[in-house]
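Translate sequence into C-alpha cells.
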Amino acid sequence: MSTSYSFLPSWSVGVQSNLPRTNEALGAADHCDVISLLAVAQHHGVDLLSVTYQPARGDLGEGGEAVIRQSFVVKEVDLAFKTLKVFYGEVPDESSAQTVSRAFETMMTEITILSQPQVRESANVANLAGISWNVATKSVWPVFAYKRGVPLREHLVGNAHETSLSVERKLDLCVVHGDIKPQNIIMISGPQGHSIPRISDFSLSVIGQDWELRRLPRTPGWSAPEYHGRDFKICNARLMDVYSLGLVCHYILAWDQAFSHLSTTEEEDEAMQHLQTLARSNPAAPLQMAIGHLNKINLGEDTRSMVEQLFRSTLAPDPQDRAQSGTQVLSLLGPVDLGDPADKGQLASPIDIPNRCCFHVGRSIVQLSAADFRVREFIYQALKRSAASLRSECRRNNALQAAICSSVAFGTERSSEEVRRSLEIGQLDEKRLASELTSLKDVFRPDQPSSLPYLLQADLLHEYQRRGDMKAACRHLESEVEGLSSTFGEHHPVLAFQRASLAAVLDEAGKSRRAQELQTSVFETNRRMLGESHPETVASLAQLALLLDHAGQTAQAIETGKQALQLYRQSHLSDNRHSIAAEANLAMAYFHADRFEDAERLQAQVVTKYETILGPEHPSTLNCLNNQATFMMWLPSAKGEVALEINRRILKAHEKHQGPLHRDTLRAHSSLLGAMVQLHGPSMETLDAQRSVLQRAEAFLGPDSIDPWIYATNAASSMMDLGLTDDASLLYRKAWPNIDRLLGQSSRQTLDVMNHYARACRSQGLHEEARRICHEIIHEDQIISEDNETDEGCSEMSFRSLCTIALSYYDQRDYPKAKGLFERITKLSAMNWGSPFAHSESRLIMSYLQDLYQSDGDAQGAVDLNKLLVQWETQDDDPRSLASQINLAGAYAKNGNYKVALETLPDLYERALQKHGPQHEITVASVTHLTRSWSGLEMHEPAISLGRDVLANLKETVGPAHEDTLLIMNNLATSLLTVESFTEAEALLTGLREVHTEQNNHEGSCLAMHNLAYLYHTQGKFKDAIKIQRDLVQKHMSQSTISTFDSVEERYYLASYLRDDPACFQESLQLSKDTWVTADSSYGYDHHLTMLAANLAGEIQMELGNLDEAQMFFDRVLKAAENITTDNKDQWLKDTRRNLELLQAKRRGDCAKNTAWLNSFL
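Result follows.
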C-alpha cells in the first residue's frame, strides 16, 4: 500500500495526535516532553542550534498557535523561528500540562514528517533548519528554525508595481505538493531569479497509509466541501488537499481581479468563506467562479483549455472526479517528475517513526555545549522529572542520562549523591554508568571536522547581559569545566570548548587574567588533540591574541596574532571566517600599538572579505566596519566625514537587526558620538546623547559589564571640554575604580580613564594629584619617566600622561620645567609618529609652547610655530584647527600686529560663537584677542561693548567666579581705565580681588578663606569672619571634589564663629549638633572632630540652661577622651571634667562658683 502525505493547517486547537497510535511503532506515544522531542531530533539528525531570533526585527506573522519570528544569520540567509504560544500560557481554557504535552506532540509530528525522504527531498517543502531555544529569565522552550521565505500574499503584493503578472508566472507559483492556504506558502529565491514556492507549517499534518483514519482540522474558507469534522481515511484527505490546491491556484490566477484590493489576510479569508457559503447551495460555485475569472483573461486556446482542465480536476464538487494526487494536477501544467511512489505504482518506504525513549546526552553534547547554559540546565531538570515515567524504558534511559549529567556537570553541579539517586530510580548499576562515560571520551575525534554550525553561533554574551545572567553564567561554566576536567582529564575536546566559552564570559566580565589562562589551556589542548594546523587549534590561538589585546598586552597580542595567521596560511585555511577574524583582531592590536596605517590597511581587507562571505549587515561585518571608521579618524590625513557616514550606517543596521538596547547597538551609537566629538568638537547635544547611551547601558548591562563605565568616561570627557569640570570629575571617580575592578590596573581602559581623571584634576587645580596619577600610569607602562632624557619612544598612554604633567607645571607657573617637558614631548611625537604635529596632544602642547615663546620675548618664534600648527590643522580635520587659528591671530596681537590680527579675528570669533557657544574657552580666547586688538588701535567702544556683553553672558552661564569670567573682567577693567571709567573699573577690580580670594579653584583659595575667617574672628570682626566662613561652607557643599572631612570641619568652625553672634546662637547650636551627628557616623565617637562638635554643643546647651542635654554631650566627650591615645588626651580629660564640674555647679545653683568657672573658662 502506498504512503501519502496531507499537509493541513495548524491554527485549530483540540487536535488529536497525528502520528500512528501503535505503541510498537512509537515506543512511547504518550510521552510528550522536551526529552522525547530531543530523542526524535537525534534520531532524524536534526541540528540543535545556539542561534536565537532577534526581537528588534519584529514578527513575521502570527497564527492561532504560533508566532513566527526572524533572525539575520549570514549573507542571503535569514531564519524564521516558530514559537508556540502554548509554552507561554496563551491558549485559554486548558490545563498547562495538557497544552504543553500537545505542543511537544505536534513538534515531534512535524519533525517526523519533514524527515521522511520523500518530503525532505522535495523542492516545494520548507524543511527544518534545526531546533533553537527561547531562553527567558525563568523558562526555556524549544523553537523550530527554518530558512526564511516571503509569504505568498506578500510576494504577490510586492509585484503589484509591475504590469499584471503573466499567466505563465502565476501558474508557475502553483507547483506545490499538498497545499493548505496562501498564508502557509512561502517563496524562496531560486536560480535565474525565479521564485520557488514551499509549503510551511507541518505541525498538525498527518502521515500514514491510505487506509488509516485521521481526524483533521478544518480550514475555514479553504477546505473541501465534504469536510465533516470526523476521521478521514488518508486517501480521502489527499483529495481534500487537491481541492485546497485548486482554491490556491484560483487565488493566484484571479489575484488582480478578485483579491488585490483586499488589504489583509482576514479579508481574504472572509471572501473565501463567503464563497464556501455559496457552495452549500451550489456545490459547483467555486469551479464556476474560477472558470469565470479565467474567461476574463486574454489567453491562447491551448493555455485556456489546460487551465480549465486544472480547475475541473481540483475543484470538482464530487471528490471522485478530482485528480488523485498533487502530481496528477501538476502534470496538467507540463511534464513533471516529483518522484512520488504513489503515482508510479511503487511501494513507499516504511514510515520512519523513532523511539522517544532513546535520548542520549553524549550524542548532542558538542552542539549543546555551544548553547545557552540555561538550556543545559533545562534539559537536566527535564531528565530528572521524566525519570519518574511509568514506562520502564523511558525511566531507565532518562535516569541514566541524568546520572551522566551529574557525573560530568552537564547542566548541573557534579554530585555523587545525585548520581546515586538517579541510578536507584533507573535500577541501574555503576558499571552501566561507567560504560556510558567511557563512550563519551570518544565523542569528538581529531580526524573529524567540527560538527558545530559556526555560521549560526549565538551572541551568548549579549543574552547573558540582557538577562542579568553574567555571574550565573560564570558560576555554571566554572562548574561544568571542573566537572568535565575531573571526569575526563585536562585534554577532553568538550572541556576545551567549555573553557573557551568560560574565557569569553570572564573576559567580558573583566577577569582578563583568568580568561587568558583558560584560553591558553584551550590552545594547548587543541594542539595536543587536533594538531597545530587544525582549524580549531588556530582559531583558539587567534582568540588568545584577542584576549591579550583586551588586557592591554599589545605587543604579545600582535605576535600571537601573526603566529595564528601564519598557521592559517601554512594550512591553506586563509580567507575563511576564522582566519578573517584573526586578521581583524590583529588590526585592532596594531591600532592599540599606535600603528594606525597598518591597522587601517589590514582592516580594509578584512571588511571586504567579510562583506563577501557574511554579507554587509552581518554583526561581524558591522563590527569590523566600526573599527575601520575608528582607524580612519586617527590617520594623519583623517577621513572624518567618511568615517561618520560609516558609523551612521552601522548604527542603523544594528538598530534594525538588534534593537536599541543590544550591546552592539549601544557600542555603535557610542562610536558615532565619539567620532562626532572628535571631528566637530563636543556640544550639549552630543553630551545629552552620550548620557542617553550611558543610562541605557546602565539599565540593560548593569555594573558588572565594562561598557557602561567606558560610556561614562566618554561622557565625562565631553563634560571636560564643555567646562563642566565638577560633573566630569564625579563621573571619572565613579568609573575608575569599577574599570580597575573589572579589567585590572594594567589594562588599556583603566590607564585611559586614569589619564582622563588626571586631566580633570589638573583642570580643578589639583596638580599634585594629577601628577601622582600620571606617574602611576607611566610606572605601569615601565617605558619612560618624567626625568628620563634618553627616550626611545613611548606608548600613547605614557605620552598623554607626560603631556598632563607638563601642563600641570605650566598651570602652576613653573614655566622652565614646563617648557623643557613641552620641547621633549614634541621630540617624542616626531619619534613615535613621524612628526611633532602628528599627535593631537602634541599639537595642544605646542599651542602652550608658543605662549611661552611670547613670554620669553620670542614673538616671531610664536608666530612661526602657530603658522605651522594652522597649516597642519587645516590638512588634518581636527576640531583644534579653529583654536590654532585663534592662537595665531593672538600671537600677532601680542606682537603688536593688531591690523594683521583683525584680518581674521572677527570671523574667528563668529565661528567659535556659532560652533561652541559663548562660554567655551575657544570663544573666550577669541574675545580676549579681539578686544586687545581693538584697544591697541584705540577702538575702545567696540572693545568695551563686546567685553560687557560677553561678561554678562559668562556670569549667567558659567558663573561670576569662573576663570574665564575673571579673565574677561580683567580685560574689560583695563579697557575702562583707558577711557577713565574709574568707578566701574574699580568695582570690577575689587570684585576680582574678592573672587580670587574666595574662589575654590584658585590655588590655596579654600585655605586662604579659612585663615582669613580665623583672622577676622581673632580680631573680633565676627560678622566678617562669619560671612567668609559661611561662603566657604557653601562652596564646600557645592563642590563634589572637596573631601567630606574638609566639609564637616568647616561646618564646625562656622558653628564656633556663629556662637559669638547673639543673633546666631540657635543656628550655632543646630549646626554643631548636625556636625556632631555627621562626624560620629562617619569617623566614630572618639575622632577629634566628633569630640570638638560634641563639646561645642554641650557648652552652648549649658549656656542656654539645657543642663540635661549638656550633660549628655559632655559624658560622650569624656568617654571618648578616656579612650583616645593621642598626646592631648590629658588636656581633653582636664577640660571635659572642668565642664562637668561647671555643669554640676549650675545644677546646685552656685552662681558665684558658676561665674568664676565661666570667667576662668572664657
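Note: Residues 88 and 604 are 46 Å apart (CA to CA).
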